[in-house]
Amino acid sequence: MRSSPSTPNRRRNGRLRLLVALAGEDHPKVCTGRRLLRWGRVERTGLAEATRGGAVVLDPHARSPLSGADRAAAARGGILVVDCSWNRLAERGGLPHDDREETTRGIRRRLPFLIATNPQHYGRLAELNTAEALGAAVYLLDDVERAGRLLEGFRGGPEFLHVNRTRLERYRACAGPDEVTAAERALFGG
Predict the structure, then answer these.
(1) 113: closest CA among 172, 177, 167?
(2) Rounded distance, CA 121 to CA 13, Å?
(3) Which domain covers residue 100, as residue numbers?
(4) pLDDT tens-digit profile of 14-67?
(5) Helices 177-188 and 157-172, interaxial angle, to 10°?
(6) In a domain, 7, yes or no
(7) What stretches of the chain adopt beta strand conformation (E)?
């Protein structure tokens, strides 16, 4: 039985729901969000539907980084990534344009600083594709094995976990966003 759109997203079989809202800005053959959908690793959703359910929305413009403090919210509402150019994310029409991190439209969190290994942005700080972003989020929320499975089949996917293992482990050990921010400073200076 399917839940109605007004029913909050819930874990299925004890696993976090991973949600993708497609903006259609990428060529379908190279879009990592579409590939995750085709392979059955994520669910497609509309931005409004997912944020009504209280999803943790991965937003690179959010002030607070994803941390262990977000596990309960992710378990209730899932993790949402908008598959679009991240520099146009606020234009997508569903994320709040103000500085509020938690709203009735979801909980905005940025990923902690990580190094991309996808072919388009290899070696760049925080320029992750959709698969890398979801893999990192799942890893940080304690499902390391699933993170590896999410990244299988992508060029640079398994390498992402290898290159970022020390950072991911350090961030995963943090209880809250302030600790993650301190870990970022220690790892990257500043």
Answers:
(1) 167
(2) 34
(3) 18-188
(4) 689 999 988 766 655 668 999 999 999 999 987 777 667 789 999 888 999 999
(5) 120
(6) no
(7) 18-22, 43-44, 56-58, 79-83, 102-103, 106-109
Tokens of residue 18, six digits: 């991973």
Token pair for residue 134? 């979801």
Q: Does residue 6 fall inside a structural domain?
A: no
Q: What are the beta bridge partners of residue 81?
A: 20
Residue 27 resides in a domain: yes
Amino acid letter, residue 161 = L
What is the distance between the alpha carbons of residues 65 and 47, in angstroms, rounded to a whole number? 20
* Inter-residue contact 82 to 23 (CB < 8 Å): yes
pTM: 0.83
pLDDT, one tens digit per residue, over 59-76 is 888 999 999 999 999 999
Q: Is 120 helix (H, G, I), strand (E, B) or coil?
A: coil
Q: 3-class secondary structure for 15-44?
A: ECCEEEEECCCCCCCCCHHHHHHHCCCCEE
Q: Which residue has the tokens 């959703």?
A: 45
Q: Report d(CA 129, CA 132) in Å as an integer.
A: 5
